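Exercise: predict the structure of this protein bound to 1,3-dihydroxyacetonephosphate.
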Amino acid sequence: MSQKQLIETAYAMVADDKGLLAMDESMPTCHKRFAKLGIPETEEYRRAYRELLVTTPGLNESISGAILFDETIRQKTQEGTPFVQVLQEAGIIPGIKVDKSTKPLAGHPGEKITEGLDGLRERLEEYVQLGARFAKWRAVITIGEGIPSQGCLEANAHLLARYAALCQEAGLVPIVEPEVLMDGAHSLQRCYDVTEQTLRMVFAQLAAQRVLLEGMILKPNMVVPGLECPKQNSVDDVADATVTCFRRTVPAAVPGVAFLSGGQSSELASERLNAMNVKYKSRVPWALAYSFARAIQQPGMSIWAGDPANVETAQKSIAHRAKCNRDARRGEYSSAMEEASA
Ligand code: 13P
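Solution:
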């Protein structure tokens, strides 16, 4: 795979003010969300739900690529069309989550490490055969007393970089996702400090592993106060802190910053993305885009609740959330859009 093709794919993933739909929940995560809504935790319900997502009418108007899970990239619609084909025919680029989830990091209480590097080269080859053009690896950084530790940050950054290099060797654009979690009572400033430290380390490791920056996408958290922090800063404060942090850490060669939503409400994620684009779109070198799972899916999943009769209404919600985020990339999102849709 030539560098040119990698670069073209990376730019296509954030082109036209679109963004990514993360629909790569592992089985336990998917089941946790199903359980809350009383949806049976079976393979058929997982398949039916993912069919609902990939067949959403108009999804391609706001979604450039979809991140699939190992099970999902092999699944088909009820009529027998592979999900990958459904996406390709809609002009949506298929991608694949390739990490094998997080485990406790030995010797580091409260911290996590992502597994999945063993045998990755061979797995990537198979995913390319199955039609994937990009991949995702998520590292998790927890804020707490005395953490994150240097050891945790270094180990996770190193794995992200080794994964990214393997992806590019296989012709897949790596989405590099170091997620600083929102859990906790920490302040916006503390999230800023940890995110800055994390990104510095990630880009140092990416350079050490000779990752082509033009052929990757960064998927970071926004810089936000902890969920239990008594002071919840304004949308503008979050936009300013986030963009300031990235300007200081993310090289201009990276085509796109595609945020995760991380447990923010759907509306807040759109509002914050909108504020960043209103203020900074023309003044930053990379696209400020989205790669949301919950902030696009959650309202639609609640409407569906496992009942085939609700598919159409749920799909309208998915399409609506995706469109809100496309509008946010254009700096044209407003909460009035929510009322109009309701
Ligand atoms: P959320 O948008 O729900 O945080 O998920 C994004 C993601 O893909 C996590 O890896």
